[in-house]
Amino acid sequence: MEDPRLRRAFNRLNKYFMVPAFRLGLGGLIGNPITGYIMVIKAIGRKTGRVRYTPVNYAILDGCIYCMSGFGSRANWYANLLAHPRIELILPGCACWGEAEAVADSAEWSRATRQILQNGGFAGFMLGFNPFTASDDELRQKCQGLPVIRIRPSGIGSGPADPGGWLWAALMFLSIFWILTRRKKKDEWRIANG
Q1: Do 121 and 187 belong together in one domain?
Q2: By residue range, what is the domain housing residue 185?
Q3: What is the Cα–Cα distance from 146 to 1, expressed in whole angstroms?
Q4: Most CB atoms within 10 A, among 7, 39, 145, 189?
């Protein structure tokens, strides 16, 4: 996936939709077999030292969480993980801390890559093959140079409803919307029934 337009489109989608949705606690509403199952990685930037948020497709295998860098080892978030492997994950159902490491074993890499792509919805097919029916050789050939990261969970992270999360904003917005809608209907009823 070397197309710069595709990369810019993903960056915008991630920055203005995916990350805010997960920080608002709405991540569970996004993931499905069509759009893919997504989590957000909270990592420390290797240059700035600031928290960076990156949505990625993932798979859970044998108690570990796996993700893949679809833009290869040049991806900034991948370099951040290598520099600061202690990360936090915002999954659709929970948040956790863990240690990230690149997968070196070829059998583990193949198994995790296939599962990540199968969980990736339409994004799983963007490499030009079907991850459900492809042979192991085709999988290795098409995904050559794409690092797979294993995250070993080690603790509970802060979720959207915890301090620092944004769930409160979504709930406040929905409450205000509900109050205004209810008030408008009440006024319309009074006018109609005079």
Answers
A1: no
A2: 164-194
A3: 10
A4: 39
Say which CATH number the domain at 143 has. Answer: 2.30.110.10
Mean of all residue pLDDT scores within the chain: 89
DSSP classification of residue 67: E
99 vs 160 pLDDT, higher one: 99
Phi/psi of residue 67, nearest 5 degrees: -145, 170
In this prediction, residue 19 has a pLDDT band, given cuts at 50, 70 and 90, of very high
Return d(Cα 163, Cα 138) in angstroms, integer: 46
Q: Phi, psi (5° rounding) for residue 183?
A: -65, -40
Q: Do 122 and 178 belong to one domain?
A: no
Residue with tokens 């459900």: 132
Nearby residues of 94 by Cβ (< 8 Å), 6 or more positions away: 156, 157, 159
| 58, pLDDT greater than 90 | yes
Coil, helix or strand at residue 14: helix
Same domain, 155 and 187: no
Q: Please count the CA atoms within 13 angstroms of the CA of 190 that sit on its side-chain side.
A: 6
